[in-house]
Amino acid sequence: MPENNASARDRVFAEPVSAIGDFKFSKDVASVFDDMVERSVPFYTEIQRMIGEMAADFVKSGTRVYDFGCSTGSSMLALHDHVPPDVRFVGVDSSEEMLERCRARLVKKGFRRPHELRCEDLNAGARVENASLALMVLTLQFIRPLRRERLMADIFRGLNGDGCLILVEKVLGEDSFFNRLFIQYYYEMKRRNGYSQTEIAQKREALENVLIPYRLMENRELLLRTGYRYVDVFFKWYNFCGMVAVK
């Protein structure tokens, strides 16, 4: 289900302020979120296309697809034409403002699949049942590190045999040398996409205590420790990666 990005232009951090608070998925962020991820996440549209492509091989008739951190529904829309018609979608997000945007967007885009949207804090765990696919697209990085093991275990238990987890994350470099370079390349990408130095600096400060990335190998080890049989990387761009794991 292709779509054009109709989101307002992201100017959340455009004006200099004296004190930067922690980043929140507020009404202001929700209203520009689609533009924000398109300009801030490398190859975001291609990642969503790849998710839809992989879903076709894992999602089974009569099961559920969970999108943890569903935001405005981009991943559910990307899967619309790739999975059986009786699959039920469950979108979970901790921000009611994002879910309001998601509801309106799904209606606007003609999303016809059975679905429900839940406002839940994933730091408290997840309720999962009869799932053939779970998505965490730029979500785990916002979960407090001490709560990640439990959350991943909850998702794993709710996946059916041969079920699949797709994890997309911002990651640290494996050592400080490459980490510095990758961050530099990332900020250059954001500048190419129209963000000013002020916007880059203020958003970085807002995210400092909110978005806590792991190294790619730390995420891989977490998935294997949780119990997945197969784990591989399907996407990598400097300090962003996509991983796929099969139960």
Structure description:
With 247 residues, the chain is α/β, with parallel strands linked by helices. The chain has a domain of 164 residues: Rossmann fold (3-Layer(aba) Sandwich). Helix content is 41%, strand content 20%. The protein has eight helices and seven strands. α3 links the parallel β1 and β2.
In a few lines, what is going on in this structure?
The protein is an alpha/beta fold and 247 residues long.
Key descriptive features of the protein:
single chain, 247 residues, alpha/beta, Rossmann fold, seven-stranded mixed beta sheet
Helix content: 40-55%
Q: What is the SS-derived class?
A: alpha/beta
CATH topology of the domain at 44-171 and 211-246: Rossmann fold
> Secondary-structure element order, as H and E?
HHEHEHEEHEHHHEE
Number of strands: 7
Number of separate helices: 8
CATH superfamily of the domain at 44-171 and 211-246: Vaccinia Virus protein VP39
Q: What is the CATH class name of the domain at 44-171 and 211-246?
A: Alpha Beta
- In the CATH hierarchy, what is the architecture of the domain at 44-171 and 211-246 at level 2? 3-Layer(aba) Sandwich
Ranges where pLDDT stays below 50 over 5 or more residues in a row are none
**What is the strand arrangement across the widest sheet?**
3-2-1-4-5-7-6
Please indicate the percent range of residues in DSSP E strands (runs of 2 or more). 15-25%
Please describe the biggest sheet, giving its number of strands, its sense, and whether it closes into a barrel.
7 strands, mixed
Spatial separation of the terminal alpha carbons = 28 Å
